[in-house]
Amino acid sequence: MSEADNVVARCAQLLNTIRTEVNQTLVGQERLVDNLLIALLTGNHVQGGHILLEGVPGLAKTTAVRALAAALGLETKRISFTPDLLPADVIGSLIYNQKEGTFTPHKGPIFANLLIADEINRAPAKVQSALLEAMQERQVTLGDETYPLPKPFLVMATQNPIEQEGTYPLPEAQTDRFMLKCVVTHPSREDERRIMKRFAQGKPAAAKCCISPEEIPLLLSAVDNVYCDEKVGDYILDLVFATRDPAAFKGLASLKEAIELGASPRATLCLNLAARANALLRGRAYATPQDVKEVAHEVLRHRLLLTYEAEAENLTPDAVIDRLLAEVPVP
């Protein structure tokens, strides 16, 4: 057994432990938990880590993030985004000391391992832009000084897709910096029955830290041990290029009028990272085309800009991705 296989096996064991602990608080939502773990596993990479959770209120989006943070023993801070929020409320500011005539940095809630950004689309563009440097560079600039953020640093944001009053669409530049966009749906009837029973018995059990601080760096570097074959890489490139020039691929010519803007090169990097992280969740030291398929919707859905005509025909990014996965040849 190679060293990479040993690392992957150890990480798979840790991930199962974390998943079990998170399920002490969360019922169902297995795919949501997997996406959160993928975000965690890729948190050390420039293009990885951040996740946008979209769903109506009451689907345990914030609860899931809090449970993951508790299981990992990481510092969590939460910001409720509102229209009157200021950039200083997020990143901090400089406080003037009149006695000494100096400015002292007052660090904002962004200085945490997991930043929960509730209803992120309720804040205006100036607040959204305050997150860009932090999400891309893992640092914050206050005055003339730059301060590194803790490691790992992950932004886990939520937004309500139904209520549009008092909301601001996220800028494309920021949306692209979220590695994954996860659409959270209602639980199944059986899962909701389990939720009802759990709450009927009183306060449900809370997740507790189940791994040691020394094991966090192992999880954050484990994706580097997962092999991605060149053929799988070519499949990733084909999927991304098919969003930009569908007519070049057999069976996709009709999408040319539906896609106004295809996925960016960041999508290629994120597909590669997410596929390897998905393989790690399955206990494998190599990524397969199936891993790419399983993460394609989360990586691509917020990076496709459809034309007005496509939206008028109720064509969704998920439907376009389904066509891509069905028509692009699998190696």
Can you walk through the features of this model?
The two termini are 27 Å apart. Strand 3 (92-97) and strand 4 form a beta hairpin. The protein is globular. It has 13 helices and 13 strands. It folds into 2 domains: 3-83 and 112-220, Rossmann fold (3-Layer(aba) Sandwich); 226-327, Orthogonal Bundle (Helicase, Ruva Protein, domain 3), CATH 1.10.8. It has 331 residues and is an alpha/beta fold. A 5-stranded parallel sheet has the order 2-5-8-1-9. The chain has a two-stranded antiparallel sheet with strand order 3-4. Strands 6-7 form a two-stranded antiparallel sheet.
Describe how the helices and strands are arranged.
Blueprint lengths: L2 H20 L7 H12 L9 E4 L6 H12 L3 E5 L6 H5 E6 L4 E6 L6 E5 L6 H13 L1 E4 L2 E4 L5 E6 L12 H4 L4 E4 L5 H12 L14 H7 L5 E2 L1 H15 L14 E3 L3 H17 L4 E2 L1 H12 L4 E2 L1 H5 L4 H11 L4
Parallel strand pairs: 1-8, 1-9, 2-5, 5-8, 10-12
Antiparallel strand pairs: 3-4, 6-7, 11-13
